[in-house]
Design goal:
D-Maltodextrin-Binding Protein, domain 2; MetI-like fold; 3 domains; 5-stranded mixed sheet; 18 helices; 13 strands; elongated
Length: 488
Amino acid sequence: MKKKRIYFSWLVLIWGLIFSVLSQPVKAASVDHSLEKVQKRGKLIVGTSPDYPPYEFLVNQNGKEKVVGLDIDISRKIAHDLGVKLEIKKMDFDSILVGIETGKIDMGISALSPTAKRKESVDFSQTYYKSGQYLIINKNDKNIYRDKDSFQGKTLGAQNGSIQSELLKKQMPKSSGRYLTKVSDLILALKSHKVEGVVAESAVAIAYVKNDPSLAYINGNFNLGSDQLGSAIAFAKNSPSLVQAVNKSLTTIKNKHLVSQYLADAGKYMQTTKSNHTMLHYWRYFANGVGYTLLISAVSAVFGIILGLLFAIMRLSRNRIFHDLAVAYIEFVRGSPLMVQVMFVYFGLGMIVNLPALLSGIIAVSLNSAAYVAEIIRGGINSIPQGQTEAARSLGLSERQTLQSVILPQALKNIWPALGNEFISLIKESSIVSIIGVTDLIYQLRTVQAATYKGVAPILVAMVLYFVMTFGLSRILGYFEKRMKHDN
């Protein structure tokens, strides 16, 4: 019972620390310094989800990735008026408001509608564009569906956390909803008949249909009313000076009718990229993705082994504090998803220390791997007969020398296949860091999907690249395993 109480106490302590960070409110300063902060830094950091043409999307220019679109041109105009440089931070749509609240970005622009619920968390600028709501369908189904009422009993898709998802839930109660983070994933689901339609803004629907002859769009005839709020820019709560400055730029944009010009520019980009839809044209994207994937996996494997060995020794220690700390850490990490851990390190700890996305991903994956490696090493140490330890100690070796020179070398041979499996899994599991904007292979896969309007081809390329990486590592690990057996 005492042992169980100790474990429970440590778990409660860890949970308490986590919730204390997550529940810590972002305190508003008594004096607003939001505009002064941006101008002093000389840079406006803008968060967006670049998979929503013509608002924001990615193009390949001379082998380099570039974010373009209506929202990007508006952000560039705002930064120019503020006299600062513009920095675009790419992130998932449902992470934008979190990024604002945790101070990762100064403002979020991604065709955001200023709903009452969102206003509880962030401030909004005036609206700069209003668009209707359409339904994207497969072209072959154009004679079947006429408006939203034609989809009774059918499954439709919408972007998670968007106004379209709310319209689907409220005005199409007899239809099922499938909510995904990326519009490109929704289009892929539509083309593979996982959904019968996708709810999207009219400008977005037109953009996708123009670039994919297998698709069509229809007017959903939604009862918009207060839901036709238009698109606005989101800011941290209590940022009146920055909001006021941005509103001045938006007023200029409206008065000079620049929105139509920006939309025309976005259309030109879309037409240009339409002729560059071969996967070979995007080889640099995949190459960069492989590079980041290998970097994250390699660094995380090294730190995972170091920390894993430390926690394994702590768990085997006769010191109750060390033992209980190791048990609490291992059980907690193995009992929570890696995705949650990545988001906690990036957003949760980001409220205390502003960690870059890549570093946050490496830290989260390393800490996660360490828990599993610790159990593998502990199992290997326990597999060595007790007589080995007794013999070493009788020869005058210290406890540290026994562990270092006798136990660990033998344990390594026993656990090598399990360690190898963990390293291979690490390459695949590291893909989760794409949710915070790290440009690994999965992130680049989605980038190519958004740029080419193709869903399956980039997936096939990524599958082949992952296979090459894991198969190559498997061969290397197998070589060393044979060497160990030969040494026996």
